[in-house]
Amino acid sequence: MDPKPRILTVLDIVTIVLFIIAAGLVFLYAPMEAVMGQVQRVFYFHVANAWVGMLGFLVAAIAGVAYLRTSDRKWDIVGLAAVEISFVFFFIAIISGSIWARGSWGTWWTWDPRLTTAAIVELVYAAYFMLRQGVEDSDRRARYGAIYASLSFISVPITFISIRILRTIHPVLFGGDSTGTGTFDMSSKMLVTFMFALLTFSFIFADLLWHRIRLGKLAEKTENLRLKLLQ
Amino acid sequence: MFISLLQQAPAETTRYMIAGYTVIFSIMLLYIISIFIRRRSLKRDLQILDDMEMKDESQSKSH
Fold first, then answer.
1. Contact A214/B21, CB-based, under 8 Å?
2. Residues in A touching B54 (Cβ below 8 Å)
3. I need a labelling partner for B41 at 20 to 30 A (CA). Which of A35, A97, A139, B9 fits?
4. What pLDDT does residue A162 have?
5. Do B17 and A41 touch (CB under 8 A)?
6. Is residue B44 in a domain?
7. What are phi and psi of A33, to 5 degrees?
8. Domain-embedded: residue B48
9. One pLDDT digit (tens) per residue for chain A, 231 residues
10. CB distance A106 to B42 below 8 Å
11. Is residue A230 part of a domain?
């Protein structure tokens, strides 16, 4: 069994420290928003979770293309790891967004373009796991997974631009006219907290991805040995 | 004075903030725990399979 690399331990520690600082900024440093009140603080980790979701789906698409070009099994492990992490974090973004919506819009859910497309993205990637479960042959599973992860990434930019091209009540942070309900102007303290949360969650993604890849390699090793003994 | 009377206090939404962060922290923690549990269980499986492989090899040598 491969020992845990020293640099991964360092990354674990740095990530934990960043996470504690980010939480401190959210609850102690960032000011309370004047209209929405405390619920606006959900915004910092809500967006950061969505960021990890989109980042991971991008990594999975790149890994899918790399697998199709090289047929190297390591890219299948990377792709599966990235989709799994992003699926979880995107799910958190949807749930935390719903809670924020209840506090600021007065409703848990509305079929707004952003919410609808985000739900579709989550369902598209849920189907990725179903597809993999349904294919027994490992080479075919890896190939189908790679094709699916590459194609399904199309749904991610659609979600990102949906609030910029369609009528929506979801706030547009960058590149919009900020007309959504629940929109707010970020003060400099809010902006610092927001950017720090994005940085922290990028570290969390890198750290978890590394751990999940190691898990995937261990699973493959176990499976290969099991097959060898069965023969 | 008139301005301060016209200003509205922020909405009381603390419970939604608590709910939001409870969900965020809980799911993240559960996912991290799931990675550790899966790793531990795979290590155990691999150990058992290694032992079986060694037994197989020693048996085939003795025959």
1. no
2. none
3. A139
4. 81
5. yes
6. yes
7. -70, 140
8. yes
9. 678 899 999 999 999 999 999 999 999 999 988 888 899 999 999 999 999 999 999 999 999 999 999 999 999 999 999 999 999 999 999 999 999 999 888 889 988 888 999 999 999 999 999 999 999 899 999 999 999 999 999 999 998 888 777 777 777 665 555 455 556 678 899 999 999 999 999 999 999 999 999 999 999 999 999 988 887
10. no
11. no
Distance CA B20, CA B14 (A): 10
As a residue count, chain A comes to 231
Indicate whether A188 belongs to any domain: yes
Within 10 angstroms of residue A152's Cβ, the number of other Cβ atoms is: 20
Residues of chain B contacting residue A98, judged by C-beta atoms under 8 Å apart? none
Q: Do A103 and B17 touch (CB under 8 A)?
A: yes
Contact B16 A33 (CB under 8 A): no
The residue range of the domain holding A220 is 6-224
CATH of the domain at A185: 1.20.120
Nearest CA to CA, how far is A116 from chain B (Å)?
A: 20
Q: Which chain B residues touch A219 with a CB distance below 8 Å?
A: 38, 42
pLDDT at residue A16, as a whole number: 98
Query: How close, in Å, is residue A92 to chain B by CA atoms?
Result: 6
Residues of chain B contacting residue A221, judged by C-beta atoms under 8 Å apart: 46
Cβ of residue A217 closer than 8 Å to a chain B Cβ: no
* Average pLDDT value over all residues in chain B: 87
pLDDT at A112: 86
- What total number of domains does chain B contain? 1
Is residue A203 a part of any domain in this protein? yes
Q: For residue B33, give its domain range.
A: 13-62
Question: For residue A133, what pLDDT is reported?
Answer: 94
At residue A37, φ and ψ (nearest 5 deg) are 80, -150
Is A1 inside any structural domain? no
Domain contains B4: no
Tokens 């809500």: give the residue.
A46
Q: How far apart are CA A79 and CA A35, in angstroms?
A: 42
Residues from chain A that touch B49, judged by Cβ atoms under 8 A, are: 222, 225-226, 229
What is the nearest CA distance from A79 to chain B, expressed in angstroms? Answer: 16
What is the domain count for chain A? 1
User: Coil, strand, or helix at residue A181?
Assistant: coil
Phi, psi (rounded to 5 degrees) for A110: -145, 150
Q: What is the predicted pLDDT for the residue at A170?
A: 75
